[in-house]
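hiii so um. not sure if this is the right channel but i have a protein structure encoded as C-alpha cells and i wanna go backwards to a sequence. like what aa goes where. can anyone help
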C-alpha cells in the first residue's frame, strides 16, 4: 500500500486566528540577536514578514474557507538560524470540515528542516505531532510520543519547508524535477512536472503563472490520481497564486490568493545576518 503523505494540508495551511503571530499589514521584527552567525543565508524569494492570504473554494459551491501562509520571523534552533513559517487552513462543508495548523523551522543557510509541528483537525480526527530533525545523524525524534527513526537524507524537508524550497527552483516548462529529500522514506520521491505557462485571475489580481503538477508516493491529493496543479507567479517571487486538487469526500478544492504582504528578504537587509536570535532549545 502506498504511504500517505499529508502535503495537501501543508500547501493549504493557514488557520485564521489560531496562534497567528503575523497580522496583515504588519512586518514582524527579527528576534533579538546575541551571537554572530558564520554561514550566510541562501538567496530566496521570501523573507520575514511575508504573508499570503487565501480564499478556499470547494467545487461549484464557492468560498468555503480561508487560509494563510506566513514567514513569521527568524528563530534559532540548536544554535542554527532558521525561518519559522506557519501554514494553516480552516473551512469545509457541514459534513467535511478541516482546521489545520502547521509550523516548520528550516535553516536560512541551506533550507534544511530542523523542526516540524502539526496540529490538525480533519473531519472527526484530531492529531498533534512534534518532530525534531537531526540532519547530521540522519535521524528524527517525535517529541510528543517519544518515537524516533532514521531519515533517508542529510538534507531533510518536511511538507511545509518543501513548498518554500520549490519556490527557489527555476521551474522550466517541460522539465521534471525529482527529489528524495522528504524526511520520511515513505514520502519519496517527490516529482514536480512543469506543465505550462498561463495567466490567472484571483482576488489579489491577474498574474502570469507557471503551472506545476506535483506527484508523490501517496494516495492523497498529490498522488497520481489527484490531478493537482499549483500555479506559481511567473516572477522572481514565485508566489503560490492558485492551487487545485481533488480531495476525497470533499471533491474539487481550490485555493485563490487574496492578499499579499511582502516580506523582508535577508539578502536585501545588508546581506548576511551578522547576528543570531536567542536559541529556542529543542
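sure thing!! here u go:
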Amino acid at each position: 500500500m502506498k504511504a500517505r503523505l499529508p502535503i495537501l494540508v501543508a500547501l493549504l495551511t493557514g488557520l485564521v486566528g489560531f496562534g497567528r503571530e503575523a497580522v496583515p499589514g504588519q512586518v514582524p521584527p527579527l528576534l533579538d540577536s546575541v551571537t554572530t552567525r558564520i554561514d550566510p543565508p541562501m538567496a530566496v524569494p521570501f523573507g520575514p514578514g511575508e504573508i499570503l492570504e487565501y480564499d478556499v473554494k470547494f467545487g461549484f459551491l464557492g468560498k468555503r474557507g480561508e487560509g494563510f501562509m506566513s514567514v513569521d520571523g527568524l528563530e534559532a534552533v540548536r544554535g542554527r538560524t532558521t525561518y519559522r513559517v506557519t501554514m494553516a487552513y480552516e473551512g469545509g462543508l457541514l459534513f467535511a470540515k478541516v482546521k489545520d495548523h502547521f509550523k516548520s523551522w528550516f535553516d536560512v543557510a541551506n533550507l534544511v528542516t530542523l523542526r516540524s509541528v502539526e496540529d490538525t483537525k480533519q473531519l472527526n480526527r484530531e492529531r498533534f505531532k512534534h518532530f525534531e530533525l537531526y540532519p547530521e545523524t540522519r535521524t528524527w525524534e517525535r517529541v510528543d510520543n517519544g518515537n524516533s527513526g532514521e531519515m533517508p537524507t542529510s538534507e531533510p524537508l518536511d511538507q511545509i519547508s518543501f513548498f518554500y524550497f520549490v519556490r527557489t527552483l527555476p521551474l522550466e516548462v517541460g522539465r521534471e524535477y525529482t527529489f528524495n529529500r522528504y524526511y520520511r522514506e515513505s514520502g519519496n520521491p517527490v516529482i514536480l512536472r512543469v506543465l505550462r505557462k498561463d495567466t490567472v485571475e484571483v482576488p489579489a489580481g491577474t498574474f502570469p503563472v507557471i503551472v506545476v503538477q506535483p506527484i508523490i508516493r501517496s494516495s492523497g491529493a498529490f498522488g497520481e490520481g489527484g490531478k493537482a496543479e499549483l500555479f506559481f507567479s511567473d516572477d522572481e517571487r514565485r508566489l503560490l497564486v492558485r492551487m487545485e486538487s481533488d480531495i476525497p469526500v470533499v471533491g474539487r478544492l481550490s485555493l485563490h490568493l487574496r492578499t499579499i504582504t511582502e516580506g523582508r528578504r535577508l539578502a536585501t537587509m545588508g546581506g548576511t545576518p551578522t547576528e543570531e536570535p536567542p536559541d529556542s532549545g529543542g
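oh and Residues 159-166 form the longest helix (8 residues).
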